[in-house]
Amino acid sequence: MFEKFFKTNANQQEEVDLDENKIPTHIAIIMDGNGRWAQKRHLPRVAGHKQGMETVKEITKAASKLGVKVLTLYAFSTENWKRPAAEVNFLMDLPSKFFDTFVPELVENNVKVNVMGYVDQLPPKTRQAVFDAIEDTKECDGMILNFALNYGGQAEIVSAMQAIAEKVKAGALQPEDIDEQTISQHLMTNTLAPYANPELLIRTSGEERISNFLLWQIAYSELVFTDVLWPDYAPANLAEDIYQFQKRNRRFGGLNKEEEK
Ligand code: FPP
What we know:
Layout: E1 5-8, E2 13-16, E3 26-30, H1 34-40, H2 45-66, E4 70-77, H3 85-108, E5 112-116, H4 124-136, E6 144-151, H5 153-169, H6 180-185, E7 200-203, E8 222-225, H7 235-247, H8 257-260
Parallel strand pairs: 3-4, 3-7, 4-6, 5-6, 7-8
Antiparallel strand pairs: 1-2
Helix pairs in contact: 1-2, 2-3, 3-4
The structure holds farnesyl diphosphate (FPP).
Protein backbone atom coordinates (compact mmCIF):
# COMPACT_ATOMS: atom_id res chain seq x y z
CA MET A 1 0.00 0.00 0.00
CA PHE A 2 1.18 3.49 -0.74
CA GLU A 3 1.75 6.12 1.83
CA LYS A 4 -0.16 9.33 1.34
CA PHE A 5 2.05 12.13 0.18
CA PHE A 6 1.65 15.81 0.80
CA LYS A 7 1.46 18.06 -2.19
CA THR A 8 2.69 21.53 -1.36
CA ASN A 9 0.86 24.47 -2.88
CA ALA A 10 1.89 28.08 -2.34
CA ASN A 11 0.29 28.35 1.10
CA GLN A 12 -1.33 25.05 1.78
CA GLN A 13 -0.65 21.37 1.81
CA GLU A 14 -3.06 18.88 0.37
CA GLU A 15 -2.87 15.14 0.56
CA VAL A 16 -1.95 13.36 -2.65
CA ASP A 17 -3.08 9.83 -3.32
CA LEU A 18 -1.03 8.30 -6.08
CA ASP A 19 -2.68 5.80 -8.38
CA GLU A 20 -0.52 2.73 -7.95
CA ASN A 21 -1.57 1.46 -11.37
CA LYS A 22 -0.21 4.58 -13.07
CA ILE A 23 3.30 4.83 -11.69
CA PRO A 24 5.61 5.81 -14.60
CA THR A 25 7.67 2.77 -15.60
CA HIS A 26 10.78 4.80 -16.47
CA ILE A 27 11.57 8.13 -14.82
CA ALA A 28 14.52 10.20 -16.03
CA ILE A 29 15.81 13.12 -13.96
CA ILE A 30 18.01 16.08 -14.85
CA MET A 31 19.42 16.79 -11.39
CA ASP A 32 20.02 20.51 -11.58
CA GLY A 33 20.65 23.26 -9.02
CA ASN A 34 23.48 21.85 -6.90
CA GLY A 35 25.64 24.94 -7.48
CA ARG A 36 22.84 27.38 -6.59
CA TRP A 37 21.97 25.38 -3.46
CA ALA A 38 25.58 25.75 -2.28
CA GLN A 39 25.81 29.41 -3.29
CA LYS A 40 22.71 30.24 -1.21
CA ARG A 41 24.55 28.83 1.80
CA HIS A 42 27.86 30.54 0.96
CA LEU A 43 29.41 27.13 0.43
CA PRO A 44 31.65 25.97 -2.43
CA ARG A 45 29.75 24.51 -5.42
CA VAL A 46 31.00 21.02 -4.65
CA ALA A 47 29.11 21.07 -1.34
CA GLY A 48 25.97 21.11 -3.48
CA HIS A 49 27.12 18.05 -5.40
CA LYS A 50 27.88 16.26 -2.12
CA GLN A 51 24.38 17.00 -0.81
CA GLY A 52 23.02 16.07 -4.25
CA MET A 53 24.54 12.64 -3.82
CA GLU A 54 22.53 12.19 -0.60
CA THR A 55 19.40 13.14 -2.56
CA VAL A 56 20.25 10.43 -5.11
CA LYS A 57 20.13 7.86 -2.28
CA GLU A 58 16.75 9.00 -0.96
CA ILE A 59 15.14 9.31 -4.39
CA THR A 60 16.46 5.91 -5.47
CA LYS A 61 14.87 4.24 -2.45
CA ALA A 62 11.61 6.17 -2.88
CA ALA A 63 11.34 5.37 -6.61
CA SER A 64 12.07 1.71 -5.97
CA LYS A 65 9.38 1.54 -3.25
CA LEU A 66 6.85 3.12 -5.61
CA GLY A 67 7.46 0.37 -8.18
CA VAL A 68 9.34 2.39 -10.80
CA LYS A 69 11.13 0.01 -13.20
CA VAL A 70 13.94 2.29 -14.38
CA LEU A 71 15.32 5.47 -12.82
CA THR A 72 17.78 7.26 -15.11
CA LEU A 73 19.85 10.03 -13.54
CA TYR A 74 21.88 12.55 -15.55
CA ALA A 75 25.02 12.61 -13.40
CA PHE A 76 27.60 13.96 -15.90
CA SER A 77 27.14 15.12 -19.46
CA THR A 78 29.63 15.08 -22.34
CA GLU A 79 29.59 18.89 -21.96
CA ASN A 80 30.38 18.93 -18.21
CA TRP A 81 34.14 18.54 -18.93
CA LYS A 82 34.10 22.31 -19.59
CA ARG A 83 33.73 22.98 -15.83
CA PRO A 84 36.77 23.90 -13.69
CA ALA A 85 39.12 20.93 -13.20
CA ALA A 86 38.57 20.87 -9.43
CA GLU A 87 34.80 20.52 -9.89
CA VAL A 88 35.20 17.85 -12.58
CA ASN A 89 37.57 15.92 -10.29
CA PHE A 90 35.08 16.14 -7.45
CA LEU A 91 32.27 14.86 -9.67
CA MET A 92 34.49 12.02 -10.89
CA ASP A 93 35.12 10.98 -7.26
CA LEU A 94 31.41 10.87 -6.42
CA PRO A 95 30.58 7.42 -7.85
CA SER A 96 33.17 5.70 -5.63
CA LYS A 97 31.98 7.70 -2.58
CA PHE A 98 28.40 6.82 -3.42
CA PHE A 99 28.82 3.11 -4.11
CA ASP A 100 31.34 2.52 -1.29
CA THR A 101 28.62 3.23 1.24
CA PHE A 102 25.38 2.62 -0.63
CA VAL A 103 25.74 -0.76 -2.39
CA PRO A 104 24.41 -2.78 0.61
CA GLU A 105 21.26 -0.64 0.65
CA LEU A 106 20.89 -1.04 -3.10
CA VAL A 107 21.05 -4.81 -2.70
CA GLU A 108 18.62 -4.65 0.24
CA ASN A 109 16.21 -2.76 -2.03
CA ASN A 110 16.82 -5.18 -4.92
CA VAL A 111 18.11 -2.32 -7.11
CA LYS A 112 20.37 -3.12 -10.05
CA VAL A 113 22.93 -0.56 -11.20
CA ASN A 114 23.44 0.23 -14.87
CA VAL A 115 25.52 2.87 -16.63
CA MET A 116 24.98 4.66 -19.90
CA GLY A 117 27.55 6.90 -21.58
CA TYR A 118 31.10 7.01 -22.89
CA VAL A 119 32.47 5.16 -19.88
CA ASP A 120 35.84 4.39 -21.49
CA GLN A 121 36.68 8.13 -21.30
CA LEU A 122 36.15 8.27 -17.52
CA PRO A 123 39.11 8.14 -15.11
CA PRO A 124 39.91 4.48 -14.25
CA LYS A 125 38.86 4.92 -10.61
CA THR A 126 35.42 6.22 -11.59
CA ARG A 127 34.94 3.51 -14.17
CA GLN A 128 35.99 0.82 -11.73
CA ALA A 129 33.58 2.06 -9.03
CA VAL A 130 30.69 1.84 -11.47
CA PHE A 131 31.71 -1.58 -12.82
CA ASP A 132 32.06 -2.93 -9.27
CA ALA A 133 28.57 -1.66 -8.40
CA ILE A 134 27.16 -3.28 -11.55
CA GLU A 135 28.83 -6.55 -10.58
CA ASP A 136 27.67 -6.34 -6.93
CA THR A 137 24.04 -5.74 -7.91
CA LYS A 138 23.82 -8.03 -10.93
CA GLU A 139 21.52 -10.53 -9.18
CA CYS A 140 19.01 -7.82 -8.24
CA ASP A 141 15.90 -7.86 -10.39
CA GLY A 142 13.96 -4.89 -9.03
CA MET A 143 14.37 -1.30 -10.21
CA ILE A 144 17.27 -0.44 -12.51
CA LEU A 145 19.24 2.59 -11.34
CA ASN A 146 20.69 3.85 -14.59
CA PHE A 147 23.43 6.48 -14.33
CA ALA A 148 24.06 8.65 -17.37
CA LEU A 149 27.79 9.33 -16.98
CA ASN A 150 29.66 11.16 -19.70
CA TYR A 151 26.46 10.91 -21.69
CA GLY A 152 25.19 13.20 -24.46
CA GLY A 153 22.09 12.63 -26.56
CA GLN A 154 23.56 13.95 -29.82
CA ALA A 155 26.78 11.93 -29.42
CA GLU A 156 24.64 8.86 -28.71
CA ILE A 157 22.71 9.39 -31.96
CA VAL A 158 25.98 9.89 -33.89
CA SER A 159 27.33 6.60 -32.49
CA ALA A 160 24.10 4.80 -33.41
CA MET A 161 24.24 6.21 -36.97
CA GLN A 162 27.85 5.10 -37.33
CA ALA A 163 26.99 1.55 -36.21
CA ILE A 164 24.03 1.43 -38.60
CA ALA A 165 26.14 2.80 -41.48
CA GLU A 166 28.75 0.08 -40.84
CA LYS A 167 26.03 -2.56 -41.15
CA VAL A 168 24.80 -1.02 -44.40
CA LYS A 169 28.37 -0.89 -45.74
CA ALA A 170 28.87 -4.55 -44.87
CA GLY A 171 25.63 -5.42 -46.71
CA ALA A 172 24.00 -6.67 -43.50
CA LEU A 173 21.29 -4.01 -43.60
CA GLN A 174 19.39 -2.32 -46.42
CA PRO A 175 18.77 1.45 -46.08
CA GLU A 176 15.04 0.94 -46.75
CA ASP A 177 14.86 -1.46 -43.78
CA ILE A 178 16.00 1.20 -41.33
CA ASP A 179 13.08 2.23 -39.15
CA GLU A 180 12.47 3.67 -35.66
CA GLN A 181 13.10 0.29 -34.09
CA THR A 182 16.50 -0.03 -35.82
CA ILE A 183 17.55 3.31 -34.36
CA SER A 184 16.23 2.49 -30.85
CA GLN A 185 18.13 -0.78 -30.93
CA HIS A 186 21.41 1.05 -31.56
CA LEU A 187 21.01 3.51 -28.70
CA MET A 188 22.50 3.05 -25.23
CA THR A 189 19.02 2.56 -23.75
CA ASN A 190 18.45 -0.62 -25.79
CA THR A 191 19.41 -2.78 -22.80
CA LEU A 192 16.54 -1.21 -20.82
CA ALA A 193 13.86 -2.47 -23.23
CA PRO A 194 10.88 -2.68 -22.82
CA TYR A 195 11.41 0.42 -20.65
CA ALA A 196 13.94 2.15 -22.90
CA ASN A 197 11.93 5.38 -23.16
CA PRO A 198 11.11 7.45 -20.07
CA GLU A 199 7.43 8.03 -19.46
CA LEU A 200 8.30 10.97 -17.22
CA LEU A 201 11.23 13.38 -17.45
CA ILE A 202 11.80 15.67 -14.47
CA ARG A 203 14.17 18.63 -14.34
CA THR A 204 14.80 20.34 -11.03
CA SER A 205 15.86 23.93 -10.26
CA GLY A 206 13.47 25.86 -12.49
CA GLU A 207 15.44 25.55 -15.73
CA GLU A 208 13.27 24.42 -18.62
CA ARG A 209 15.70 22.81 -21.05
CA ILE A 210 16.57 19.29 -22.16
CA SER A 211 20.36 19.90 -22.23
CA ASN A 212 21.18 17.08 -24.63
CA PHE A 213 19.51 14.39 -22.52
CA LEU A 214 17.83 11.34 -24.13
CA LEU A 215 16.86 13.27 -27.26
CA TRP A 216 15.39 10.33 -29.15
CA GLN A 217 13.88 8.58 -26.16
CA ILE A 218 11.77 11.50 -24.86
CA ALA A 219 9.64 11.80 -28.03
CA TYR A 220 6.48 11.08 -25.99
CA SER A 221 7.70 11.62 -22.43
CA GLU A 222 5.71 13.84 -20.11
CA LEU A 223 7.94 16.71 -18.97
CA VAL A 224 7.76 18.11 -15.46
CA PHE A 225 9.84 21.13 -14.44
CA THR A 226 10.06 21.87 -10.75
CA ASP A 227 11.64 24.85 -8.99
CA VAL A 228 13.09 22.69 -6.21
CA LEU A 229 16.90 22.56 -6.28
CA TRP A 230 18.23 19.00 -6.52
CA PRO A 231 19.83 18.87 -3.04
CA ASP A 232 16.40 19.83 -1.58
CA TYR A 233 14.44 17.38 -3.74
CA ALA A 234 12.69 14.95 -1.41
CA PRO A 235 10.53 11.83 -1.87
CA ALA A 236 7.46 14.07 -1.36
CA ASN A 237 8.57 16.16 -4.37
CA LEU A 238 8.93 13.01 -6.44
CA ALA A 239 5.40 12.02 -5.43
CA GLU A 240 4.14 15.47 -6.43
CA ASP A 241 5.79 15.19 -9.83
CA ILE A 242 4.38 11.69 -10.37
CA TYR A 243 1.00 13.14 -9.39
CA GLN A 244 1.41 15.76 -12.18
CA PHE A 245 2.20 12.90 -14.56
CA GLN A 246 -0.90 10.98 -13.49
CA LYS A 247 -3.11 13.99 -14.22
CA ARG A 248 -1.78 14.31 -17.78
CA ASN A 249 -3.72 13.00 -20.74
CA ARG A 250 -1.30 10.93 -22.80
CA ARG A 251 -2.53 10.53 -26.38
CA PHE A 252 0.68 9.65 -28.30
CA GLY A 253 -0.59 11.60 -31.31
CA GLY A 254 -4.00 9.88 -31.24
CA LEU A 255 -7.36 10.93 -29.83
CA ASN A 256 -9.14 10.33 -26.55
CA LYS A 257 -11.65 7.44 -26.53
CA GLU A 258 -14.62 9.87 -26.36
CA GLU A 259 -13.26 11.94 -29.27
CA GLU A 260 -13.16 8.84 -31.50
CA LYS A 261 -16.97 8.43 -31.33
C1 FPP B 1 23.83 20.10 -12.04
O1 FPP B 1 23.83 21.12 -11.07
C2 FPP B 1 24.40 18.88 -11.49
C3 FPP B 1 25.48 18.21 -11.97
C4 FPP B 1 26.21 18.61 -13.17
C5 FPP B 1 25.98 17.02 -11.29
C6 FPP B 1 24.93 16.11 -10.81
C7 FPP B 1 25.52 15.15 -9.87
C8 FPP B 1 24.96 14.78 -8.70
C9 FPP B 1 23.64 15.25 -8.23
C10 FPP B 1 25.59 13.79 -7.84
C11 FPP B 1 25.59 12.48 -8.56
C12 FPP B 1 25.84 11.37 -7.72
C13 FPP B 1 26.44 10.25 -8.14
C14 FPP B 1 26.37 9.08 -7.27
C15 FPP B 1 27.21 10.12 -9.39
P1 FPP B 1 24.69 22.44 -11.34
O2 FPP B 1 26.04 22.23 -10.76
O3 FPP B 1 24.66 22.74 -12.80
O4 FPP B 1 23.88 23.48 -10.53
P2 FPP B 1 23.68 25.03 -10.89
O5 FPP B 1 22.91 25.07 -12.18
O6 FPP B 1 22.90 25.55 -9.72
O7 FPP B 1 25.06 25.63 -11.00
